[in-house]
Amino acid sequence: TFVHTKCRDTSKVYLRSKNIFRQFVPDELVKWEKPFPDYNPPDYTSENLRGKPWADSENLDEMRWNELDGKINRVSHITKYRIENKRPQNPFGRTGLQGRGTLGRWGPNHAADPIVSRFYNGKLQFIAIERGDTGEMAIPGGMVDPGEDVNETLKREFTEEALDGIDDKTLEELWKTGAELYRGYVDDHRNTDNAWMETVVVNFHDDKGILNEVKFKAGSDAKNVRWLTISPSECLKLYASHEHFIRLFAERHNIHL
Ligand code: RP5
Ligand code: MG
Ligand code: MG
Predict the structure, then answer these.
(1) Pick from 104, 155, 139, 152: nearest CA to 222
(2) What is the tens place of the pLDDT at every residue in 202-247?
(3) So where are the chain's domains?
(4) How many angstroms is it from 106 CA to the middle of ligand 1?
(5) Which helix (H) or strand (E) segment is 246 a member of?
(6) ipTM value greater than 0.90
(7) Fewer C-beta neighbours within 10 Å, C or N terminus of the chain?
(8) pLDDT in the model for residue 247
(9) Distance 198 CA to ligand 1 centre (A)
């Protein structure tokens, strides 16, 4: 069974923090049901979230958990999560860090990941970005805005990160090809005991050559953008759970990684 690992990394300081390190959680103590008397992880919520319009406040009493809270979607794709000491509890278990870290929302933080793909010289490829925060290659995904339809998020984030914000009308046909591959938890390095990433992964596959003419350019939180070729021999190292998503994508096109 799956245990999250990227959000238990104790070798690196927590993203953009000065000196916050996670408490070590062994695999067998990840599940909340397992007693862990010495578990007392640091409580960290980034100062940068304060007053940000896209972030929650510290007033947990006002929030409507497991519901649509005004325009903010606090419903998990995975489960009805528990509330412990007023805070949502990560359904995948301990992470060695309490608080929200750098995530905007308590509980689920909803994202969308568009896999834009083609066959080129007989090889399956998708558009990948280099992330500005960790430097890892990734799917050009991003957060769902309050009230936004996930289908909009997929297009918007792709446009921001892989087209430098320039809406390309030639892609209109491509956006109609969406096939959902995954909906659920992301093992993201930012996750904490009280805040975590969830996503919807959708494949937009071009078999008409629409993409051959498109000029890609990195924008927003992406540093670089390029086609990544999928091959069973090459081991892909990607951000968060994106290796898993790419495996599902490859299988859809009959390539087994
Ligand atoms: C990952 O973080 C998701 O799979 C998505 O790719 C991404 C969204 O966060 P930002 O790119 O906005 O940082 O967990
Ligand atoms: Mg983005
Ligand atoms: Mg992004």
Answers:
(1) 139
(2) 999 999 999 999 999 999 999 999 999 998 877 789 999 999 999 9
(3) 110-252
(4) 16
(5) helix 242-252
(6) yes
(7) N
(8) 96
(9) 9
